Amino acid sequence: MDQNQPYSFQVNLQGMISLLSEHLYSNPNTFIRELLQNGVDAITARKNLDETIVGKIKIQLPTDEDAFFTFQDNGIGLKENEIHQFLSVIGESSKRNDNIDGKDFIGKFGIGMLSCFVVSEKIIVETQSIFEDHSFRWTASSDGNYTIENLPRNENVGTKVILYSKAQYKHLFGLNHFLPQIRYYGNALTEEIVIENKNDTIIVNETKAQWINGNLEKEDLLQIGRDVFNIKFLDAIPFHTKAGDCSGVLYILPQKTSFSGKQNHRVFLKRMFLTENDNGLLPSWAFFVKMLLNSNDLNATASRESLMHNDVLREVKKELGEIIKHYLESLKTLNPEIYYKIIQVHFLHVKAIALEDTEFLQLVINDLPFETNKGFRSFRNIIETGQTIYYCPDFDEFKQVQRLANFQGNMVVNASYTFDEELLRKIASAHPEYKIQAINSYKLLNSLQSIDEKEEISLLGIRTKILEILKSYNIELEFKRFQPSDTPTLYTRPEESAFNNTIKQLKENSNPFASAIQSIPQEVQKKPVFCLNLDNSLIQNLITITDTDILTPIVQVLFVQAMLMGKYTVSEKELTMFNDALYSLIVMGMTNFINI
C-alpha cells in the first residue's frame, strides 16, 4: 500500500436516498418543489442572456398509454460537461459557480435531483443547451449508474425530466393529488405552469400572487387573506423590508390568541413556497399576526423547508417588529375603530410590545385595559379617579384584598396576569405622579380602623386566652373594625413569614432542603397576623365567652377558616385541628339540644 496515495470517498446512492426521504425532506412531495426550483432557475439563467424570453413550464401526468411523468422547462439547458458535473455529482450545483450571481436562483446545494429518486426508480433528463448544436439524454438509476446519449438538436431549448413512479408513490402523480401540491409550491411563480392531463390543459398559477406587488387596495388584500387562510381578518398591513428584500402582507387576527399557540404563515423564497412556519421572522410577541411573505435575498437551508438563521434574518425580524409598531401608532389616528378593536382583542400582545418599547408605551398607555376590583378599566379610567393605584401581583392576594378595598373605596388592580406587574412598575418609574403601589392583605390590614386604648384594655383577657389557644402558631393577634361586617376574621402573612412557614413545612415533611434554605440570611422576621373584626356579630359574641372549653374550638375553626379564605396552604396539622374542633362543637351542640 502506497501511504502517499490519495483516495476518494465513496457514496452509497441508495443510502443517500433513504437519508433524504427519512431525515432531510419532510414528505415525498418534495420532488415537485425541487423540479420547480430547477426549472425556474434554468429559465432565470436564460433570461439573463435574453430578457425577451417568456418562461414556461409544461407538465404531463402519467396516462394508461404513457405510464411516465414529464416535467419540461424552456430554460438555458445543460451542456455535456455540465451534465457530468451538476447532474451526476451529489452536492455540486451550477448555481454556486463563482461567475454566476447566485442571488437570482432558488437552489444552491446540488441535491435537488436526488429527491426524484425518492419517488422514481429511474430518471431521464433530455436537455438542449442554448450553447450546443445537439441535445443529450442522461439516464440514471437508483443503483448509482448513469449513461449519456447524444441526440439531434432540439429546436426547443430547455430541459425535460422524465420519471417512472415507484409502485407505492403512484398516487402522487394523479391529478387530484398533484394539482393542489404544485399550486401549493408554485402558485406565486411568474413563469407560466401548465399541466397536460389526457385532453385537459390546466394553468396552475393564473393569479401569480398579486400580494407580492404591494400595490393592491386594502379590500383586495383582505380578500386574499380570506382565500389563503380562510379567516376574515381585522386588518391587513402591506410591507416591504430593506433587509432580505422582503415584501408581503401582515394580517391582524380577529380573535384572541395565546403566546403558546402556533400560527401558520406562508413564506416564499423568490416566489417559491418555502414553509408555513415564521422561522423566527416575527417578534416573539407577534402571535396575533399571520403573514404572507416573499423574500428575494434570504437563504434557505439544505432541505429548502426553512430559512437560515443569520444576521440578515435578524434584521428582517427587527424591521417587521417596527412595521407593526408604526402601524398601531398611525392606526390610532387613521382608524380609531380598528385600533380599539385590536386593543380589546389583543391587549396582552400590545402590553408585550409596550414592555419592550418605552415610546410605544407612551402612545398606548391610556388605552391598556386592566382588571380591577371594580371590573375591567382602561388605564385612563383608573388614573382619572385621582386615587393611589394599588396592585396585587398575586391572584389569591387580590381575591382577599378586593372585598375590603371595595368597602374602603380603593381601586386595586389584579396584576397577576402576564406582563401586568412589570408594566405597572415601568409606568410607575416613568410617571411617579400616578402614585402606583403594590399592596397585599398584610399592608391593607394596617390601613384598617384600629380600636382605641380603652377598648384595647377591655380585651386583654380574651386576647390572652386566644393567644394561648394558638400559641403553637406564633401569631400576632389584632382587633380591628372594618367592612364588610360579614367577614369575621382575616389571616395574613408578610413575605418573610411565608418564607419561615415554608421552612417549617419542609421540616415537618423531613425534607433535606429545609436546613439549606434556612441558612439563607433573613431580616428581622414579622409574624403572621390573625385579625378579628369587632364589627362582626359572631366576634362580638366570641369576646364574651369565658369558658375556655367552648372558646377553644370556636377560635380554632375561625383560625383555619381564615387561612383557607386567604388561600394559604393548610397543613395536616391545621386540618386535624379543624376537624377535632368542628367535632367538639357538634357534640356540644347536640348535648345542648338533648338537654333542652
TrEMBL record:
GO terms for molecular function: ATP binding; ATP hydrolysis activity; ATP-dependent protein folding chaperone; unfolded protein binding. It comes from the Bacteria. Pfam families: HATPase_c_3 (PF13589), HSP90 (PF00183). InterPro entries: HATPase_C_sf, HSP90_C, Hsp90_fam, Hsp90_N, Ribosomal_Su5_D2-typ_SF. ATP binds at residues 34, 38, 73, 159, 304. Keywords: ATP-binding, Chaperone, Nucleotide-binding. PANTHER family: HEAT SHOCK PROTEIN 90 FAMILY MEMBER. Belongs to the heat shock protein 90 family. This is HSP90 family protein. The lineage of its organism: Bacteria, Pseudomonadati, Bacteroidota, Chitinophagia, Chitinophagales.
